[in-house]
Amino acid sequence: MIKAKKSLGQNFLIDDNILKKIIEIIDIKDKTILEVGPGTGNLTSFILKKNPKKIFVVEKDDRLVSSLQKKFQNQIEIINDDILNINEKEFSKDRMIVYGNLPYNVSTEILCKWIINLNNNNFWFQNLILMFQKEVAERIIANVNTSNYGRLAILAKWKLDIKKICDIKPSSFSPKPKIHSSLLFFSPKTKFFKINDPRNIELITRLFFNHRRKMIKKPFNQLFKGNMEIQKKLKLNLNLRPQNLDFSTYYNLAKEYEDLRG
Ligand code: SAM
Fold first, then answer.
1. Of the candidates 45, 125, 36, which has an alpha carbon nearest to the alpha carbon of residue 81?
2. Is the entire prediction scored with pTM above 0.90?
3. How far apart are the CA of 183 and the centre of ligand 1, in A?
4. CB-ligand 1 contact for 44 (6 Å cutoff)
């Protein structure tokens, strides 16, 4: 048996009820699938039973890649690499369905990379079905005026509709992690605020939420050099705290910042 590597976030899903639930979320017959971090291939086996057109899996651990090759042979295409170094758009012309019980240490980095690299309406995926540490999932789905609201929700909800499917307890994994997990389902939005460079959303939210309990006056002045035209245009109350500004205010701020810099 392969010993799980903590450094690669290896907690394998062993609960058949959860595996069934994941695979029943949408119909994947004849769809092209990308699975991130298949591990020992538990979810991969369930995906295969649903007769997809093609399955790509990206796995970083060489030991697991050898066992996946033996187990699945030519039923799946294995890419032995780090998902963070890969251009997923090159896999297929089809819009893929992406599954991932993501390694917790890089899960937000993976999601942010995917959102930041999306060009306009040109989505390379049809849906993302991803598992996160419960606390991280709560930050992704958070709403304005809550303590979890911040950079992740503002970035993720810019282009994606997000639905929580369920929470998953530690005993569904081996080795058993100390944390609980949540499964999220993402679909691309057909309409979203136009921002040319999504890194501007990241920059603004990082600056604003850096001091989450302080008024937004300071980061606003830092970014816009006290430009009161922008404050008036966006009807911004500079005495508010970062968590009180709604999603569209952040997108508007990113747009104003972009326009100002030409
Ligand atoms: N999907 C499997 C399951 O549910 O049983 C395994 C999930 S485990 C939480 C995360 C998997 O992602 C491991 O197989 C690990 O080796 C792999 N992994 C970790 N970091 C990765 C990376 N940067 N790129 C690709 N795979 C990675």
1. 36
2. yes
3. 15
4. no
